[in-house]
Amino acid sequence: MASWQTNPVLRVDHITMRFGGLIAIDDLSFTVGRNDITALIGPNGAGKTTVFNCLTGFYKPTEGMIVMRHEDGKEFILERMDDFRISQFAKVARTFQNIRLFAGMTVLENLVVAQHNTLMKASGYTVAGILGAAGYRRAEREAIEKSKYWLDKINLTDRADDPAGDLPYGAQRRLEIARAMCTEPKLLCLDEPAAGLNPRESDDLNKLLLSIRKDQGIGILLIEHDMKVVMEISDHVVVLDYGQKIADGTPAQVKTDPAVIRAYLGVDEEEAPPIAEKLVTEAIVRAEHESQPPGKQGER
Amino acid sequence: MEYFLEQLINGITLGSIYGLIAIGYTMVYGIIGMINFAHGDIFMVGAFISLIAILAIGLTASASFALLLLALILVLAIAMILAAAYNWTVERVAYRPLRGSFRLAPLISAIGMSIVLQEFVRIAQGGRPKPMQPLISGGIELMHTTTERGDFVVRLSTMQIVIIVSTLALMALFTALITRTSLGRAQRSCEQDMKMASLLGIDVNRTISITFIMGATLAAVAGLMFFLRYGVIDFYIGFLAGVKAFTAAVLGGIGSIPGAMLGGMVIGLIEVFWSAYFSVEYKDVAAFAMLAVVLIFLPQGLLGKPEVEKV
Amino acid sequence: MTAATQQSQAGTDYRRIFIDTALTALIALAIIGPIVGMNATAPQGGLVLEYRWTMVFWLVAIIAAGRLFLQLLVWNRPAWVEPIHIKRTGAAAIAIGAVALLVGLSNMDSPVGFLAQIHPSLAAWMIAFGVFALVLGIWLMTSATKEIAEARGAQTGGLMRAVEPYGKYVGVALFLIAVVLPFIPGVDRRIVDLAILMLTYVMLGWGLNIVVGLAGLLDLGYVAFYAVGAYSYALLSTVYFPLWFGEGITPWTFWLVLPLAGLLAACWGIILGFPVLRLRGDYLAIVTLAFGEIIRVILINWYDFTGGPNGVSDIPRPSFFGIPFSNDENGFAATFGLTYSPLQRIIFLYYVILVLALITNFVTTRLRKLPVGRAWEALREDEIACRSLGINTTNTKLTAFAIGAMFGGFAGSFFATRQGFVSPESFVFMESAIILAIVVLGGLGSQIGVVIASIVVIGAFEVFREMAFLKAIMPAGFDPVQFRMLAVGIAMVLIMRWRPRGLITKRDPSIYLKEKKAVSADLVAQGHG
What we know:
CATH class of the largest domain in chain C: Mainly Alpha
Structural class of chain A: alpha/beta
Mean pLDDT of chain A: 80
Number of domains of chain C: 2
Strand order of the largest sheet of chain A: 6-7-8-3-9-10
Helix content of chain C: 55-70%
Radius of gyration of chain C: 26 Å
Number of helices of chain C: 20
Order of helices and strands of chain A: HEEEHEEHEHHHHHEHEHEEHHH
Low-confidence stretches of chain C: 1-10
Number of strands of chain A: 10
Structural class of chain C: mainly alpha
Mean pLDDT of chain C: 80
Distance between the termini of chain C: 30 Å
Strand content of chain A: 15-25%
CATH topology of the domain at 3-91 and 184-299 in chain A: Rossmann fold
Oligomer: heterotrimer
Strand content of chain C: under 5%
Low-confidence stretches of chain A: 290-300
Number of strands of chain C: 4
Largest sheet of chain C: 2 strands, antiparallel
Radius of gyration of chain A: 20 Å
Number of helices of chain A: 13
CATH superfamily of the domain at 3-91 and 184-299 in chain A: P-loop containing nucleotide triphosphate hydrolases
């Protein structure tokens, strides 16, 4: 049994999402392993971002259930929760396809804002904070320490006091991930984290994601078009097409799946496999050549 | 029953005026996504220009009906042209330079422009209300009942007929203009995607200017009718009428011209019936409360499309 | 009046410029002609037209001339005119303007001065000309300086950028002046009154700044909270407190009612805020406007409770912690062994509003460094990202509304006690617009900006009153005070066009790791939609 079947952190159960007459997601079910990197892939318009929006409460699915289960057995039914409560209590954090940083605030401020709920409690819901209570000052120092940890991890310590909008694109992507991590999630959802990155930045991103999984012990769900990233770091791949799941399994299983090949290349099954397999294998070979081996499966 | 019928006619008349103003809001909002806060004041300017033109022509109620009608058409033409000049200038001076600025900038500028127009008219024409004897009198007697308390007559005045008929005619004309002509196509394409429209060779600036001009001409019509119907105007009428017409535009579904007309009718009827059956003092509270209720519970309006939040 | 398409062609196309000027004049005539040229007045009942074509001619001529000037010398500047020439012309204009202004001012009040002997209204003309030359000169100087600097490749940003590093000293200087103001020699009652008015607007501006500047929510009905504060104070102090606690409470009412009025205003902020905070930016603006008007209409019509259009009068004046400012043996002067002067109460009021304003500032700067303040700014930057980070945006917006409303309520209480009288007329939409203009002019989110903008706006209002001398050169019936709101409207449009981020554009980070760097305004979002 695969890890995502024995101990899932997230269970998506037969969800359907309709916008008027359009069916964006059609009876989709999948699970995300507690300490896996799960990739959600599919052609443009397959409904991947809609799935994310349902997970994080921005949309309410028309039908179905989404359950987040913590290690201690606490369960959260996400489609019944307000979006901010999902982050606060169910501990699901996300990033956005078109980066949504607080551009006019500094890098450090971005990370501190993400620790809002902890700091809010420490400031006695503002009352103690206004009076200048020592407890709040201590909590703020801790928040800065935690921000420093993440700044170090994403190599942005030197730019901590610069506005986030001034950062280069790749750094903004990393900062958005760090900001999401500052909410201490149990599941991190990344919407195309490698989009627009050059190969070097893409490698850095892979390392960051792998280290997050290792050090924080959390699950990562990512939408990605870059097959290299997908094949290199993911333990589990879910493939969507026209709102439906067409494949689900390890990268190796998925890349040879005829339905996937048909969806991606739009050609007949007979001629597709060789071409597709060639493309995917090439990507993997390139990936292995350029960076360390992805091997994480063996550890668990 | 008679009272009800009379109020119904009053409501439809008032609603026609609100509807005409609301079309201007809805078209501008549709195309550049901003609330032209000064639009109510364009209506006010239209009413003032009508008043001045009537005085300048020397029109009085003693003129024969044919002459009166002819003269009023002339007054209407003057008011439409001059109100168009106003709105065109407002767009050029206060809104066009702000396209691409932060989202609230045009709104703040529009509020400034509204103040400018009000104050301009107040300083030039004085702050006192301007009353005038009714020009068009007469009408059709719809119902005549005699009760022990006295006679009760329900009349449809000629003025009300003029207002309702010309509103319907203008609405038909504008709907045809928007759906049938290349101008309407250009407007709709700008609504969808301004950058793409300009790439496809549509003169976006010109299309927006024409939209403002069209809105202003309708507001001028409403201004003349308001003046003829109620016989008194001041520099402040644009504010209240503007807020009510905006409510009408949102209620009808912003961006939709039939919706604006429908919304105008609903707001006009609510206002008239509220004054008739509840309280005249609080009729503006009713209108403002209606605005709040519509925006909170029905922001997509009656004939508009629901919006999906883009994440 | 119009901003035509500016083509930068080689060589000047005089035909095009001529047509453009003629069109400008035509449109100006269409706009000014009927409304200004034909005044509908009712001297004996019926409306008749009063014609004023001379005025129309001059207004249209000025607009056309201005347009021609811009066309010839700014947009299509001949090649032989160099920026340095413009700079020198500007300097000359400033010098001539200053001289004319001084000569005019020194002769204005003396009907026997040498200017008056030549022509009775020459002094007024001199002043008008002097002001015009000064403004023109300053504009030419700054634009030419900027152009020269740009040509050298130096960093530009005009005067404000040069001044901005000294911003913190400006704040300290203003604070010191404010503390000693009533005791500076030459400061009379009129100036203290003006300073009180300015400080009231500073406080209102700071309150609104929390909502508009920090949280990015455009509130057009802010005056409602000002009204709630003023009426709470008026009604509690005149009716309910004497009723509940007896007449003996009167000396203390101000200090007891003030916090209550603030709390009531905050409650209203929450009540009005709660249903509307899910709305988009512009819809929110219109709904808040509607709420402001609803409250005003209710104040006018709920006769039994609010006194209707007559308002509430005989509101008790504040006392010096129980000691009244009266001319008897229990009064403030007698108690402290001073000679009685009505100015003492004014000075006391001045310090009350100064302390209230300083508290507002202290709380706001503190809040900015607390999670709730950072959440406000984050909300202004990106609401969706806020929600994804677990921030309860509704509560965050509500706190902004409530705290902003509370400060508005304090200011309203103060207004009520200072005037001794409140009526619905003081709480019209224009008041909201003035406060908004102050916040926008100052720079959304900037505390010191609000102070500077209040001084400028309220000071300018006062200047309009001082311009009565213009009556000498203008047509009969001209009153400069009439033009105050027109100036506010024009200013709002111009600020949005030329300096949409206001005077102070830099944003101070609320927390820093190594060094504090101000954030340039280009990155800071202003309100979401």
